[in-house]
């Protein structure tokens, strides 16, 4: 596993890791709200690394990436797009697949809005949302997650920790292990409350981009998702002409963690199709 510091939009330093096959199809993993690149541990440390070039990074305000204090640093769509572009260009990634969990499809579409699709091979939204800040957008979120939002914004550590702990429970259909809870709670608490609030202060609707998208889009939405209603995935699929919707059973919002084997197999199939359309995958080649 290699680590890098790459300068993103407005000079924010991004913490980036890379592993896998350097000549394989690149896949960039982008985590969600209050999370970190470690959310993708079961992909980065899987057999996907035998064939694909795997990259993940902490988004601004999260993990070991920079945490600017200015609200505008989180409200400006161009800056989010700049971050993704900096990772693609900084590592010289050729037509990467952008995989985004939960909040991250918004970031992927920030990139598409400002840089287009010509330099990416495909997109994979996992339990994702593509709208924010409107009545329609809020309607795609469950009452369980909406009840926790005030606690996310609280500067009181006890209150915010309680909300973040409850958020972890909502990720899963099956009860997480105590080790998983401790692991996730540590990096959730590292995100300042003002960053959490800033991320929910945006107003976005990306139907215009999705309706004209020309790259393949895989939508994965766990049947047991307790954070984002199934209707969100259905709406995205209805708008995006090159999309396919996969609904894995017995998993919730974090399908890639709760059943990594099934998730990784589906991602592999998707990546191989994209690689076969223009970028070769070199199997079982050492990094």
Secondary-structure blueprint:
Elements: E1 2-7, E2 13-20, E3 26-30, H1 41-44, E4 53-57, H2 72-75, H3 77-90, E5 97-101, H4 104-115, E6 122-126, E7 131-132, H5 135-139, H6 143-146, H7 149-153, H8 157-170, H9 178-189, H10 193-199, E8 204-205, H11 207-211, E9 217-220, H12 230-239, E10 243-246, H13 255-258, H14 260-276
Parallel strand pairs: 3-4, 3-5, 5-6, 6-9, 9-10
Antiparallel strand pairs: 1-2, 2-4, 7-8
Helix pairs in contact: 3-4, 8-9
Protein described:
The structure is a single chain. This protein has 287 residues and is an alpha/beta fold. It has one domain: Alpha/Beta hydrolase fold, catalytic domain (Rossmann fold, 3-Layer(aba) Sandwich). It is built from 14 helices and 10 strands. The strands form 2 sheets. An 8-stranded mixed β-sheet has the order 1-2-4-3-5-6-9-10, sandwiched between helices. The protein has a two-stranded antiparallel sheet with strand order 7-8. The N and C termini lie close together (10 Å).
């Amino acid at each position: 596993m290699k680590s890098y510091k790459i300068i993103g939009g407005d000079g924010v330093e991004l913490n980036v890791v890379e592993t896998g096959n350097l000549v394989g199809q690149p896949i960039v993993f982008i985590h969600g709200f209050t999370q970190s690149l470690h959310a993708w541990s079961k992909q980065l440390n899987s057999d996907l690394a035998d064939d694909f070039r795997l990259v993940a990074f902490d988004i601004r305000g999260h993990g070991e990436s920079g945490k600017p204090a200015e609200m505008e640093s989180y409200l400006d769509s161009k800056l989010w797009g700049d971050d993704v572009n900096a990772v693609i260009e900084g590592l010289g990634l050729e037509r990467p697949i952008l995989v985004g969990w939960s909040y991250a499809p918004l970031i992927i579409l920030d990139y598409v809005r400002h840089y287009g699709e010509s330099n990416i091979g495909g997109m994979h939204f996992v339990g994702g949302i593509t709208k924010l800040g409107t009545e329609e957008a809020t309607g795609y979120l469950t009452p369980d997650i909406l009840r926790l939002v005030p606690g996310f914004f609280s500067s009181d550590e006890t209150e915010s920790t309680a909300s973040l702990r409850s958020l972890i429970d909502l990720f899963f259909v099956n009860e997480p292990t105590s080790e998983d809870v401790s692991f996730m709670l540590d990096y959730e608490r590292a995100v300042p409350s003002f960053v959490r609030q800033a991320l929910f202060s945006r107003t976005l609707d990306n139907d215009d981009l999705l309706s004209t998208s020309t790259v393949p889009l895989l939508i994965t939405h766990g049947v047991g998702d307790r954070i984002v209603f199934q209707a969100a995935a259905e709406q995205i699929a209805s708008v995006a002409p090159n999309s396919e919707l996969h609904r894995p059973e017995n998993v919730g919002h974090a399908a890639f963690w709760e059943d990594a084997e099934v998730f990784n197999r589906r991602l592999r199939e998707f990546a191989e199709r994209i690689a076969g359309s223009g970028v070769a995958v070199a199997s079982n080649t050492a990094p």
